[in-house]
Amino acid sequence: AGIVEEVASDVTDFKVGDEVFGRANGSLAQFAATDAKKLAKKPESTSWADAAAYGTAYLTSIQVLRDVAKMKDGDKVLVIGASGGCGTAALQLSKALGAAEVVGVCSGTNASLCAANGATRIVDYKTDLVDKTLKDIFGTGYFDVVFDCATNSGAGENYKAAGLEVLKPGRIMVAINGAPMDFVKMIFCGGSRRHKVHLTNDKGNQADLSYCASAQLKPVLQEGFDGVPLNEQNAIKGFKLLKSRRAKGKIVFTVLPEAELKA
Questions:
Q1: Fewest 10 Å CB contacts: which of 73, 87, 134, 209?
Q2: Are 22 and 55 in contact (CB under 8 A)?
Q3: What is the CA radius of gyration of the chain?
Q4: What is the rounded distance in angstroms from the CA atom of residue 22 to the CA atom of residue 27?
């Protein structure tokens, strides 16, 4: 998220001085260049930190739910790994898109966080899944949509089989962190009919970005990293927390002007 400094001659959607948000490579910097199609105008009511948090997590989640899993009004949605950036975004978007039931899988310590962001029921993986499976709790084919934000994310979890057991026939389970073979299948075969891996498609997402902001979805920001100034100390702490997989929501830095960095 930032303020437009320059525009190409063929750009008509933005002008210098516009406040925008979206996606750009190398955006953890004072200046970044990107395709205008990957940006949207920031609403005045949206904070800079919230706007910065929409880019990846919300685009991924809305594309998974709406485009890949073909979520419909009244569907029952299961979000695995519900307390992270994509997880909390998926909870909010599921509710906004008309889900009848939204179940979040997370630890008990994050249950209230997930409930506040749209989960109608919580499954605590530390207690509820010790001697039971998702199938034991919900039965076969209970969910219309299974969105897996946890499998292959770095701590050895694998919910693929368990998620497919509770998915209705003819529907799709979508993961954002695939095993190597999942990516091979996605590239060469488009994935399996029941299980797909989704990487954010950021080729022209003004409409999706604008929807997330206009729907008044409130990104969950990690306490202490909700726009903290970007410096070496904060960067080390922030990325260490990110790699620990214990962040609650998104980590957002504020990039200060060069004069303030030298002050």
A1: 73
A2: yes
A3: 19
A4: 10
Angle at 82 between CA 160 and CA 79, to 5 degrees: 50
Can you tell me the distance from the alpha carbon of 261 to that of 263, in angstroms, rounded to the nearest whole number? 6
- Compute the average pLDDT of residues 22-49: 93
For residues 145 and 80, give the distance between their C-alpha atoms in angstroms, rounded to a whole number: 11
The answer to whether 225 touches 194, Cβ cutoff 8 Å, is: no
Whether 80 has a pLDDT exceeding 80, the answer reads: yes
pTM for the full predicted model: 0.88
User: What's the pLDDT tens digit per position in 174-183?
Assistant: 998 766 666 5
Residue of 33, 36, 77, 5 whose CA lies nearest to 205:
36
Q: Are 135 and 109 in contact (CB under 8 A)?
A: no
Dist. CA 245–CA 225, nearest whole Å: 15
Place of tokens 């630890």: 107
Tokens coding 222: 């990690």
Residue 239's CB is within 10 A of a number of other CB atoms, namely 11
Residue with tokens 């485009």: 67
48 alpha-carbon distance from chain centroid: 18
Residue-level pLDDT at 79: 98
Rounded Cα–Cα distance for residues 149 and 34 (Å): 27
Q: What's the rounded Cα separation, in Å, for the pair 29 and 207?
A: 25
Burial label, 139 (beta-carbon count in 10 A; 0-12, 13-18, 19+)? exposed
Please report, for residues 84, 107, 163, 234, the alpha-carbon distance to residue 238 in angstroms, rounded to integers and kept in the order given.
Answer: 14, 21, 31, 6
C-alpha span between 173 and 160 (Å, rounded): 8
